[in-house]
Amino acid sequence: MNQGYPVTIYQEPGFEQSCLLLGWSEDAGDLGRGVTDYLNSKLKGQEFGKIEPEDFFPMGGVAIEDNVARFPESKFYACPKQELVILQTDSPLAEWYRFLDSVLDVAEHHCRVKEFYVVGAMISFSAHTTPRQLLAVANSAEVKEILSQYDLNTDMDYQTQPGERPTLNSFLLWSAKERNILGVSLWVPIPFYLAAVEDGQAQKKVLSFLNNRLNLKIDFGDLDQEIREQNEQLARARSRFPQIDDYINRLESNLMLSEEENGELVKIIEDSLKEGA
Amino acid sequence: MGIKFHQEPQLEDPILIASWPGIGNIGIIAVDTLRGALEAEEFGEIEPWDFFYPKRVLIRKGILEYLEFPSSRFYFKKIEGRDTIFFIGEEQPTEMGRMYAEGKRAYHMANLVLDVAEKFECRRVYTSGAAVALMHHTTRPRVWAVPNSDTLIAEIRGYDNTVLMSDIEGRGRHGNITGLNGLLLGVAKKRGLEAICLMGEIPVYLQGLPLSYPKASKSVLEVLSHSLKIEVNLDSLDELDRKVQQRIEEFYRQIPLEVRGQLDRLKHVAYAQPAEPGPITEEEEKRIMEDVEKFFKKPGDGS
Asked: Exposure string (b/e) for A36-61, b if CB count within 10 Å is 16 or more?
């Protein structure tokens, strides 16, 4: 396959060494986009490169999101003071290995990345009042050892179930391991009824870890305020809709809901949060 | 991206038999049964990561232990005068949600398989797949054979239970072979390698079911083993066929009586030359197809 090199670098970021953070644009709870947007905004990330989309996405039109046409994007940002590289990207739908190889090319050859983190959300049947957990999967024992000093669950066991496929995060971890780059995928279980909206608590869980690990010195006052507001909106929805309060109470007691109840909970919570916004 | 050889067997004038999954897994079951019966030995594989999305991950105690990809493996068997290479692809390298492999990646994979055929100086390549036919599941499937050269037609006419495109009712001499089973035939032609695709018939109303169709695999295997002059025990295929036929019968009983009545008429289809009148008229054939399509059309399909 004689395809051209899909990466464009506008300006060399000039890192001696760095850490890469990758967030997928269409994650549950808006986790990937939320975390990368927040860091870019706080750390004043400067875009320095991109991956061209035509080999990795079907060029059959555009998606419409919130009334606006959007096109697949994969953009690299540099935060030089913090030695941090941020990649916010749509998930490729073809040529996955070549896409991930391109990411790792930029990491290795343009940014001298020593370790990377990729963020992912897991759908959970728990209530939003349950504190968010942060789980980590490492691509080597060496990086797992580094993580042991942080508040993370690093003992996850998992294997692909029939009918399922591994995540791109696992594919990326494996590809990085082939190049001896240390990598970690960070996972946060997100309450299923917050999957289509922002889950500030989940975002903060990831950001707090990165803040400690990379010594970013970020003040999360603004994010804490957003979380408080969302919790108040959720509390109002509970008092306005007794059945929603009942469903959440049951989730808090580790009880399952029926499919219909799940659907009703999702709809009312999403509508309530939209109204509040 | 390329081929990794675990060993380099010394083979004389081998043939290569390649197969990938497809409708009813007809080709791959036939080829894999033959490979198993001959106890062919693995000697190489196509590196998978450029072609496939991984199929399995194992994470233990928070560490990614391994990632497994669909395999594309080569096997060989030395049989005096009939040395054979098998290529078995666990998946076709599809992309962007398409059902069959097409485009650059498929073309590249076809070329890699034929690189091996040329490296070992194969004299012929066989591929194998499915032919969707207006037939009943209780009848013996024929094998449609498509060569990539005129010079092979006379030989194919000597195969039992096998037809060329020009022999198939209403087809003229034309058709398509989708996916890698077809592409390999074309790429072999481009390289000057002779190749034949053998396709076992599957009833039109079964093509969308998630079932294998070993009855047709058996037909393909009979042709292959005759061509290779190899005796193959077909007991395991017969056993598999019995089980699948039971499931087909269960499914068949759920089809509304009116549609089933139309399908039952396919039991009486006689294979005739297009010019000769068959026991089912063209008009009736059209009605059967309309009924079949109406019944099997998924809710929400089309307008």
From this structure: bbbbbebbebeebbbbebebbbeeee
Q: Where are the domains of chain B?
A: 3-234, 255-303
Pair type for strands B56-60 and B143-147: unpaired
Q: What angle do CA B155, B158, B163 make, to 5 degrees?
A: 95
Q: Which two tokens stand for residue A133?
A: 């957990």
Assess contact for B129 and B181: CB atoms under 8 A: yes
**A6 vs A11: CA distance, rounded Å:** 16
CA distance B185 to B125: 8
Mode of pairing for the β-strands spanning B84-89 and B15-19: parallel
| Chain B residues within 8 A of A155 when measuring between CB atoms | 61-62
What is the nearest CA distance from B95 to chain A, expressed in angstroms? 6
Q: Is A158 on the interface with B (CB under 8 A)?
A: yes
CATH number of A7-218: 3.40.50.10900
CATH number of B3-234: 3.40.50.10900
Residue pair A197/A270 in contact by the 8 Å Cβ criterion: yes
Closest CA to B19 of B220, B201, B244: B220
Whether chain B has a CB inside 8 Å of the CB on A96: the answer is yes
How far is residue A44's CA from residue A32's CA, in Å, rounded to a whole number?
17
Rounded to the nearest 10 degrees, the angle between the axes of helix A221-240 and helix A259-276 is 120
How far is B290 from chain A, CA to nearest CA, in Å?
31
A75-125 confidence digits (pLDDT tens) = 999 999 999 999 999 999 888 999 999 999 999 999 999 999 999 999 999
SS3 of residue B128 by DSSP: strand
pTM above 0.95, yes or no: no
pLDDT at A173 over 50: yes
B80 sits in the region (left: phi over 0; alpha: psi -120 to 50; else beta) called beta
The complex's ipTM?
Answer: 0.90
Closest Cα partner for A189 from A9, A28, A38?
Answer: A28
Residues 6+ apart with CB under 8 A from A235: none
Q: Single out the residue of A179, A133, A129, A127 nearest to residue A156, CA to CA.
A: A133
Selecting from B59, B64, B96 the residue whose C-beta is nearest the C-beta of A94 gives B96
Task: Encode pLDDT of B161-200 as tens digits.
Answer: 999 988 876 666 667 788 888 899 999 999 999 999 999 9
Mean pLDDT of A241-263: 95
What residues does CATH 3.40.50.10900 cover in chain A? 7-218
Residues of A in Cβ contact (< 8 Å) with B96? 58, 93-94
Backbone angles phi, psi at A87, to 5 degrees: -120, 120
Nearest to B26 by CA among B227, B300, B217: B217
